[in-house]
């Protein structure tokens, strides 16, 4: 029985108060499914959306969230391959046109007319969320819906980023922002892919998590280190630096530093999106080291399925804490202060 009303976290204006209140349950359109969201991760992107950090407007009023794991409870008349009762994930890319140059070549994150969950369409900080059937991630029924939630954005994004880095098994990758949601999963995907990792973040809690449970071989504390560039390079056996750098921090400074410590022929992959930040790299060093600097943006449907499959095979343990949907404001507060090691997952029933 689908209720007419449900609990949701709503904002009426950018940066305005979060309102935990009842709103109507939407009806799926012909090509959509209605998903009873059980758990939703909280991604730093949700905080950017609330604060209006980016040069792209959100819908208003807005229900945020895009790491939603749940069960299909209704579907439109054109939907054939998703069944009622299926376990699915609502990702950042809620839908895309499926017809443009990019969609046709399975680069659907680059679609010029995407629907973005918790940004241009209502997201997963509610009990019942709409998703385009073509884009919902398929979650095997034996997987726990709380632990899989962070994989639906953080996991997919870092897995794709590691593939884009071109790093090969046995090579070194530096994860910048390693203690956060994306960073913690990045270390585990890297390890599962045969890469060796240097974690960069700050604080003893994150240091311990990275070294003891995420699989990093070295930890550089950016606020204690007197020379991050030297320390990162020194962490590789020949002192020439990591083959790849995954930037998942929410701060401009490391985006300027990475080109300095990446190995000659190495690749810097930008994933984090600090407000108003610019990339800057010395032309001389970039040339004589032949480095590559690129961006990486979520993943396509195949990347999503692969990232979930790594989890299903027991290779990824998402470090998460669960609180009620009603407690979202306190999660944002901790996130703003950089106090979250791993991810927070919201239980939509509380
Ligand atoms: O598709 C994409 N490109 C994509 C997908 C998902 C998320 C991009 N993102 C973006 C988010 O919008 C956000 O800007 O990735 C960024 C990281 O998201 P997150 O992992 O959800 O954020 P977090 O959990 O708050 O972790 C950020 C970590 O960065 C560290 C913090 O201590 C925290 O652990 N950090 C900071 I802030 N400055 C640092 C520095 N100078 C740093 N770590 C190392 N060096
Ligand atoms: Zn996200
Ligand atoms: Zn398209």
UniProtKB/TrEMBL annotation:
It comes from the Eukaryota. Its cofactor is Zn(2+). Gene3D superfamilies: Medium-chain alcohol dehydrogenases, catalytic domain, NAD(P)-binding Rossmann-like Domain. GO terms for molecular function: alcohol dehydrogenase (NAD+) activity; zinc ion binding. Keywords: Metal-binding, NAD, Oxidoreductase, Zinc. GO terms for cellular component: cytoplasm. Residues 15-346 form the Enoyl reductase (ER) domain. Pfam families: ADH_N, ADH_zinc_N. CDD domains: CAD3 (cd08297). Signal peptide: none annotated. Its EC number is 1.1.1.1. It is an enzyme of class 1 (oxidoreductase). Belongs to the zinc-containing alcohol dehydrogenase family. This is alcohol dehydrogenase. It comes from Paraphaeosphaeria minitans.
């Amino acid at each position: 029985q689908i209720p007419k009303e449900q609990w949701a976290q709503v904002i009426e204006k950018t940066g305005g108060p979060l309102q935990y209140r009842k709103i109507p349950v939407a009806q799926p359109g012909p090509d959509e499914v209605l998903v009873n969201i059980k758990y939703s991760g909280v991604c730093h992107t949700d905080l950017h959306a609330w604060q209006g950090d980016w040069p792209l407007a959100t819908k208003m009023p807005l229900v945020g969230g895009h790491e939603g794991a749940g069960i299909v409870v209704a579907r439109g008349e054109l939907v054939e391959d998703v069944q009622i009762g299926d376990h699915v994930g609502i990702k950042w890319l809620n839908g895309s046109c499926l017809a443009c140059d990019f969609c046709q070549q399975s680069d659907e994150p680059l679609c010029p007319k995407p629907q973005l969950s918790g940004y241009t369409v209502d997201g997963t900080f509610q009990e019942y969320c709409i998703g385009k059937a073509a884009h919902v991630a398929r979650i095997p029924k034996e997987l726990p819906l709380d632990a899989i939630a962070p994989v639906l954005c953080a996991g997919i994004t870092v897995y794709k980023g590691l593939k884009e880095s071109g790093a090969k098994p046995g090579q070194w990758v530096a994860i910048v922002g390693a203690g956060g949601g994306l960073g913690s999963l990045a270390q585990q995907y890297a390890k599962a892919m045969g890469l060796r990792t240097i974690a960069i973040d700050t604080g003893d809690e994150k240091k311990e998590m990275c070294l003891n449970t995420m699989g990093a071989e070295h930890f550089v504390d950016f606020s204690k280190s007197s020379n991050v560039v030297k320390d990162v390079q020194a962490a590789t056996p020949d002192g020439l630096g990591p083959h790849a750098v995954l930037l998942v921090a929410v701060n401009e400074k490391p985006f300027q530093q990475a080109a300095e410590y990446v190995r000659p022929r190495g690749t810097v992959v930008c994933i984090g999106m600090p407000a108003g930040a610019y990339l800057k790299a010395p032309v001389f060093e970039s040339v004589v080291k032949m480095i590559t600097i690129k961006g990486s943006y979520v993943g396509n449907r195949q990347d999503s399925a692969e990232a979930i499959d790594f989890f299903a095979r027991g290779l990824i343990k998402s470090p998460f804490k669960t609180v009620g949907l009603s407690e979202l404001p306190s999660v944002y507060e901790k996130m703003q202060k950089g106090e979250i090691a791993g991810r927070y997952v919201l239980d939509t029933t509380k």
